[in-house]
Amino acid sequence: MDEPRSLTRTMLIALAASAIASCVYYEPVAVHQPGPSKFDRSWEAARAAAEDVGVTITDVDRARGTIVGYKSTADVTITLWQQADGSVRVGFNVRAPTGPDTVLADHLSHAFDRRME
């Protein structure tokens, strides 16, 4: 009678040992996902800023870095330049029939800055 019990006990010990040995815990590893480039981020912020202030966009040329549109009677051109150091320069040119519209240009600039925060 002791033999089946000792065999059962041995099998249970072997089963428990194999169960413990097969449990593996892996630490999660953070994977760096690169975000959008400075130009991509600036481009999207400029496009969204134009929409925020009510500019109707009529033409976009990403390769040239220009977004063209209008608001009321003012023509709007937003230009983005990639600098040699990797930074991006953004210009807002707003022309109304009477000359430069500095108020709309300021609104565009502030909307862009908010988008870039």
Order of helices and strands: HHEEEEEH
Output the strand order for the largest sheet.
1-2-3-4-5
User: What structural class results from the helix and strand content?
Assistant: alpha+beta
- Which whole number gives the mean pLDDT? 89
> Which architecture of the domain at 38-116 per CATH?
2-Layer Sandwich
Report the major sheet.
5 strands, antiparallel
Shape: rod-shaped
Oligomer: single chain
Write the layout of secondary structure elements.
Elements: H1 2-22, H2 38-52, E1 56-61, E2 66-71, E3 74-82, E4 88-96, E5 99-100, H3 102-116
Antiparallel strand pairs: 1-2, 2-3, 3-4, 4-5
Helix pairs in contact: 2-3
Report what the structure shows.
- The protein is α+β, with helices and mostly antiparallel strands and 117 residues long.
- The protein has a domain of 79 residues: Alpha-D-Glucose-1,6-Bisphosphate, Chain A, domain 4 (2-Layer Sandwich).
- A 5-stranded antiparallel sheet has the order 1-2-3-4-5, with helices on one face.
- Helix 2 crosses helix 3.
- The longest helix is centred in the first third of the chain and has 21 residues.
- The mean pLDDT is 89.
Protein traits:
44% helix, 117 residues, Alpha-D-Glucose-1,6-Bisphosphate, Chain A, domain 4, rod-shaped, alpha+beta, single chain, five-stranded antiparallel beta sheet, 27% strand
Short précis:
This protein has three helices and five strands; from the N terminus they run H-H-E-E-E-E-E-H.
